[in-house]
Amino acid sequence: MTPSSFVGADSLVEGILQGNRRALSRGISHVEADTPTGRELLAQLYPRTGHAQVVGITGSAGAGKSTLVGAIAREQRKRGRTVGIVAVDPSSPFSHGAILGDRIRMQDLTADGGVFLRSMASRGNLGGLSESATGVADLLDAAGFDVVLIETVGAGQDEVEVANAAGTTVLVANPGGGDDVQSMKAGLMEVAQIMVVNKADLAGADTAVTQLRGLLAIADLGAWKPPILKAVARTAEGVPELIDAIDKHQAFIKSSEYAEEERRHHAERQLVAIARAILHREALSAARQSGALADLVSVVADRSRDPRSAAEELLAAVRREWAGR
Ligand SMILES: Nc1nc2c(ncn2[C@@H]2O[C@H](COP(=O)(O)OP(=O)(O)OP(=O)(O)O)[C@@H](O)[C@H]2O)c(=O)[nH]1
Ligand SMILES: [Mg+2]
Question: Which end of the chain is more exposed for a tag (fewer CB within 10 A), N or C?
Answer without folding.
Answer: C
